[in-house]
Amino acid sequence: MIDFPEERFPSTSNRGDRPPTLRGVTEADLPELLRVDREAFPEDPYPPFILRQLIEIHGDRILVLDDGNGLLGYVLFVNASDGSVSWIMSLAVIPHQRGQGLGRRLMVEVLRRLRTEGVRQVRLTVEPTSAAAITLYGSLGFSSEEGVVRDYFGPGEHRLLMTLAL
Ligand SMILES: CC(C)(COP(=O)(O)OP(=O)(O)OC[C@H]1O[C@@H](n2cnc3c(N)ncnc32)[C@H](O)[C@@H]1OP(=O)(O)O)[C@@H](O)C(=O)NCCC(=O)NCCS
């Protein structure tokens, strides 16, 4: 289990409705993480084996929001090998929980941790039509000098590249 002492997660026997807790992912979260990812990215979810291995390899880089009944969202962020650049690989909030500040909460916590680590730049890609995500990232200081890169993820899969200097 990955331990985040500042926001300990209560044992499952204590689960129930409560304000969402932000905590590190655990292996037991895999089914919920898959569900959240499918709900947020219905056309292009991560395959189970990828999420399973991401938990294994980058488990300290996946934060989840848990209301005691299940996961409401997650963020995955991974540092480049020299440690100065970090990428937001995925940010997701399930549809019926959006617009309540959960996405912002996940991102603010990620940026806080990366600043503490001395990361100098945060990068991400976003679908050019994802107004909510682009507005959220912009409000956090991300900008998009590079603009939209055509076919970034293959034919027709254009992405807006955004960066934030920390
Ligand atoms: C992007 C996403 C994570 C935002 O989560 P959320 O919990 O709804 O976001 P928040 O409630 O924290 O809103 C944060 C900011 O986003 C912007 N925003 C949120 N919803 C918006 C909408 N429908 N239209 C425009 N801007 C919006 C606002 O700037 C908002 O700040 P404000 O409330 O202070 O005005 C969520 O919409 C989602 O999971 N989308 C599908 C997956 C995705 O596109 N992920 C990002 C790319 S990897």
Concise overview:
This protein has 166 residues and is an alpha+beta fold. The chain has helices at 30-40, 48-58, 102-117, 131-139; strands spanning 21-24, 62-66, 71-79, 85-93, 121-126, 148-149, 159-165.
Tag the structure with descriptive keywords.
28% helix, 166 residues, binds coenzyme A, seven-stranded mixed beta sheet, 25% strand, alpha+beta, single chain
Question: What does this entry look like structurally?
Answer:
With 166 residues, the chain is α+β, with helices and mostly antiparallel strands. It has a single domain, classed as Gcn5-related N-acetyltransferase (GNAT) (Aminopeptidase, 3-Layer(aba) Sandwich), CATH 3.40.630.30. It contains 4 helices and 7 strands. It has a 7-stranded mixed beta sheet, sandwiched between helices. β2 and β3 (71-79) form a beta hairpin. The longest helix has 16 residues, at 102-117. The site of coenzyme A has 21 residues, from β4, α3 and α4. Coenzyme A is lined by residues 40-41, 90-93, 98-104, 126, 130-133, 135-136, 139.
Each distinct ligand: coenzyme A
Number of strands: 7
Distance between the termini: 29 Å
Low-pLDDT sequence parts: 1-16
**CATH fold field value:** Aminopeptidase
Can you lay out the helices and strands and say which pair or pack?
Layout: E1 21-24, H1 30-40, H2 48-58, E2 62-66, E3 71-79, E4 85-93, H3 102-117, E5 121-126, H4 131-139, E6 148-149, E7 159-165
Parallel strand pairs: 4-5
Antiparallel strand pairs: 1-2, 2-3, 3-4, 5-7, 6-7
Bound molecules: coenzyme A.
Residues 40-41, 90-93, 98-104, 126, 130-133, 135-136, 139 line the site of coenzyme A.
